[in-house]
Amino acid sequence: MFILGESMDNSDLAEGDICKHRSSGELLKVTGVGARYIKVIKLDGMPTEYQCEFLISASEEEKSSTKDKFHKPRPTVPGPAIKPGDVQKAVSGFTVFSEEIKNKYPGLQQALLEFWADLLAVAGNYPGGSWVMRKEESEHYCPVLRAYNSKTGRWNQFFYVLWWDKVRLEIVKGYLPPESEPLFPEKDTMYGTCHAVEMELTKFKATKQDYLDCIKDVYRMNPNPEGLA
Length: 229
Prior knowledge:
Elements: E1 18-21, E2 27-33, E3 37-41, E4 47-51, E5 55-57, H1 60-66, H2 84-104, H3 109-123, E6 131-133, E7 143-149, E8 154-163, E9 167-172, E10 186-188, H4 189-192, E11 194-199, H5 201-221
Antiparallel strand pairs: 1-2, 1-5, 2-3, 3-4, 6-7, 7-8, 8-9, 9-11
């Protein structure tokens, strides 16, 4: 019987490989490999994804029998248009946020701007799309990264960059790659939806790349939709 979480030989799966679903035996073609999920297409070209535990390598016979039978991946549906008003709201909101940091915590604004630029290099600088400002009425107004859900056609907030005399980062648990969990030791924050970390700026500077790598993994498995400008 298959038990979720048991060890399986899927560590060698790579893009282009033929694999199969552990339970159903359905043959699939790998289109992307992440820390927790593997993107695949079915024989008809329909894209989907599964947790790594559900997939195993196909036998050589299975690979040869289906090698040329997979249809081309179905085209990605363009994402929703970003409204000009949403763009301006995000940009102006971040400017206000940044200036508040400058006034309240001298010396920390530059570190914020550098980290935010690094994040947008990964997420894409699409204000109103890949990032927004948290609602002003919330307890902590801050910039937020969003990931696109191709199944629902919606953007989902998942990474909150809070900045005061310390650095605080919160990530929605459903997006957190398993190997990055130690980076967020505070569990079940934000009403149980997130894990978080809070640290002095000096410690953050020493570990910043680890958090950027975590975000890279998130976007690798949740790419932005086509057609963004």
